[in-house]
Amino acid sequence: MGSVNLEMPPMEYETRIGKQEVKLNAVKGQMGSKTRGVSLTWNDLWVTVSTRKSGRKAILQGLTGYARPSELLAVMGPSGCGKSTLLDALAGRLDFSTRQSGDILINGHKQKLSYGTCAYLTQDETLLATLTVKEAVYYSAQLQLPNSMKKSEKIQIAEQTIKEMGLQDAMNTRIGGWGTKGISGGEKRRLSICMEILTRPKLLFLDEPTSGLDSAASYYVMSGISRQKEGRTIIASIHQPSAEVFNLFHSLCLLSSGKIVYFGPASAAIQFFARNGFPCPHLQNPSDHFLKTVNKDFDEGGEILEKRSHANFTTQSLVLTRRSSVNMFRDLGYYWMRFATYVGIALGLGSIYYDLGSNYHSIEERGLMVAFVVSFMTFMTVGGFPSFVEDMKVFQRENLNGHYGCCTFVIGNTLSSIPYVLLISFVPGAIAYLLSGFQNGSGHFIYFALVLFTSMMIVESLMMNVAAIVPNFLMGIVIGAGIQGLQILSGGYFQLPSELPNPIWKYPLYYMSFHKYAYQGMFKNEFEGLKFTDDQFGNNRTMSGEDILRERWQVEMAYSKWVDLAILVGTLILYRLVFLLIIKTNEKVVHARKASTSVLSNRSSQIMAKSLPTSPLHGLTSFDDSPTNNG
């Protein structure tokens, strides 16, 4: 069957809406007293975006519909018809670049979707690949469920949810990802749903839950969703379901170019298309027929929702620290490959600068080794950027759904990374330090390792800041490497402080670069107290380390090396606070967007209050069987 344009006549549309509103007022209050759930209704919903050519473009055009408890509403239509935009609008997730008008009511009230009452599953699967199914759900349960609930109860809920979604046979299987085999795509999708329904939300949004899955996996995912419908209102956008999946739907909203073509019982859609001259061919999947038909590309007050509580700040911080630690331990690319690389480089440094001695030549060699350690061993921390981006994706999904806040994420991420950064700074640092014959004494080595550790943590913080702003792998690494390159150049080693151009390079970059304090701290740690023999040209005169610091490296001697370390620690804290500020700002932007899109006008509070009749909207199936006369 070829592609056919099926458009409702404007007069018929308006007439049917008018009749529908009259009928809605007549049945007001029939529902809500029978069930305690969420009745979501929307009327004359428009969403527009700005364009350069025409000013504004309408994505959704005057949509009216409803979703009722214990029912699964499927939003279908060809690509670009506005399915995801409709879900975002109903869930209050539209960007600031969009404008929304129309009325959205929750149980007849204008109220925000508070934590625990609503869950949203996006198309992207942001899961930690190193965790098992059981661990992922357990950690999520500990983060989301309130502290008043016992740990055994949380575990019971987690296990029950896993069984409800049919994942009990995969409980001890790792999720898997790039380079590691794990659970299937359908199981990942069901796992994502598991983590969102732990709080038993009354309203569940699912954006393309079967995207990328074969028909069998799609059926298992959707049947698992359908089993969760009791007392829960489920709205799912879906592109092209199989006949088996289509039979699971209670209601159908069929969109084309941002307009409603059909809204009503899914079982009545075939009759509607047949009455309008587009009968479904025998043995053809109804959803395929609907999409080919509409695709224009190729031719009384209800229950007041109460915000639920979740785990407190301390519990969330501890759980996130533990979960992140497990992920870092199991993800070879996070720290272990870097650790092996650092050990190899440390062995190389130690062999090249083996037993430096105290002659004149050793002065330059010590300086070169310090510069390599501070500049390039810390620079290699950018290799962890892909892992940082994955962490940010998981955080953004879980934070948007209210699992935990920004502060707990920053604390958990920081605490979990400290042991691993200590490992990759102390062990390779010890190898390079001992082989090269740097200053004797445990105090000198500890200072050397602490400066290396703090510098690595600073670079990790810098890359986390970049990941929070630029989530693209390639662009993030380029930007992070560029910032570090500027700091290295202005740090006072590759060009001595007195020779740096005053504008920009000396003021302010030289004083802003953490490399300045790392260079100078390590130089003081290494040269103070040593004596060197100037054996050039047979002089054999003795030089003190302090003289070399002042004359050769132009080190600021007015304060001790511990001040340099303190400045580094302060820089680390500042970078982490900036990271917190960035993600907190992003969170406030999202919440402001949700608040702005959830402001509903009083005039609509009586139009679609509690329930709607089961007959389809917009004249899509008539109140009588006769066609409407548009004349």
TrEMBL record:
Residues 40-282 form the ABC transporter domain. Keywords: ATP-binding, Membrane, Nucleotide-binding, Transmembrane, Transmembrane helix, Transport. It comes from the Eukaryota. SMART domains: AAA. GO terms for molecular function: ABC-type transporter activity; ATP binding; ATP hydrolysis activity. This is ABC transporter G family member 11-like isoform X2. Its main location: membrane. It is found in: Membrane. CDD domains: ABCG_EPDR. It comes from Nicotiana tabacum (Common tobacco). InterPro entries: AAA+_ATPase (IPR003593), ABC2_TM (IPR013525), ABC_transporter-like_ATP-bd (IPR003439), ABC_transporter-like_CS (IPR017871), ABCG_dom (IPR043926), P-loop_NTPase (IPR027417), Plant_ABCG (IPR052215). It is a multi-pass membrane protein. Belongs to the ABC transporter superfamily. ABCG family. Eye pigment precursor importer (TC 3.A.1.204) subfamily. The chain crosses the membrane at residues 335-356, 368-389, 418-438, 445-467, 473-496, 562-583. The lineage of its organism: Eukaryota, Viridiplantae, Streptophyta, Embryophyta, Tracheophyta. One of its GO terms (cellular component) is membrane.
